[in-house]
Amino acid sequence: MRPLLFAVAAALAASCSPAKPAETAKEAEAAATPDPAAAEKQKQAEQKVAYEAVKSDDAKVDDLADTGNGFALYHRGAARIASTEFTVQQGGFEDMEAAAEAGNAEAQFWVGQRMAYGQDGYPWKPNSGLMMMEKAASQGNMDAVLAVGLMYEQDGLMKNAEKAKQWYQRGADLGSDKAKDALAKLGTQEDF
After folding, report:
1. What is the number of domains present in the chain?
2. pLDDT tens string 20-59
3. Residues 40 and 91 occupy one common structural domain
4. Is residue 99 within 8 Å of 85, Cβ to Cβ?
């Protein structure tokens, strides 16, 4: 009878203990939920390390690209596009698109530019191209940051002074003299 009494008392004591504060529960939930941006950054870092380890061996780069490594796909795609053979070039375009899908910023910028301006056989899709370039710019690709700012500054369909300033400011914050110059130029334009 005594063991049963102790078990009931222990259960009763546990149920009467104070609840966790809401902040602690929220902190625990936030810690358990992975940050998508941090996870993507980690993935890109891992892919870059894997590519750097094999970049001097074309066969290993091909193998790595075949596994979906964005860096290997981008570099293999660039090499294929430089070819004079049409079918090899087509494989390069496929590699670039796969690299962009894998999150490679250089490939996202490359594909985004061609979509935004309808170049190299890509249909003209300014909004889709801009969104792709923004993905690259969000990863700190300075060419993409400047291109996005320029598109918002000058493109007839996408013109948005505030967004142009925001992207140029982001570039300036990252230390780009070109972005600083673009910001200064925008400051002097009265009709923008």
Report:
1. 2
2. 555 566 666 656 666 777 888 899 999 999 999 999 999 9
3. yes
4. no
How far apart are alpha carbons 149 and 172 in whole angstroms?
A: 11
Query: Which three-class secondary structure string do you get for 75-92?
Result: HHHHHHHCCCCHHHHHHH
Residue 122 lies in a domain: no
pLDDT confidence of residue 32? 62
88 and 144, same domain (yes or no): no
Residue type, 185: K
**Mean pLDDT in runs of 10 for the chain (192 residues)?**
49 52 59 74 92 96 96 97 96 97 96 95 93 95 96 87 94 94 79 48
Start-end of H helices in the chain: 2-15, 22-32, 36-54, 58-66, 70-81, 86-101, 105-117, 126-138, 142-154, 161-173, 177-188
Task: Clarify whether residues 96 and 154 are in a common domain.
Answer: no
Backbone phi, psi, residue 158, to 5°: -105, 0
Torsion angle of alpha carbons 9, 11, 12, 15, nearest 10°? 160
| Separation of alpha carbons 189 and 168, rounded Å | 15
Segments forming the whole domain that contains residue 182: 129-192
Q: Does residue 163 fall inside a structural domain?
A: yes
Residues 99 and 40 in one domain: yes
Token output for 75: 């570099």
Provide the pLDDT for residue 186.
83
- Start-to-end CA distance of the chain, whole Å, equals 86
pLDDT in the model for residue 156? 81
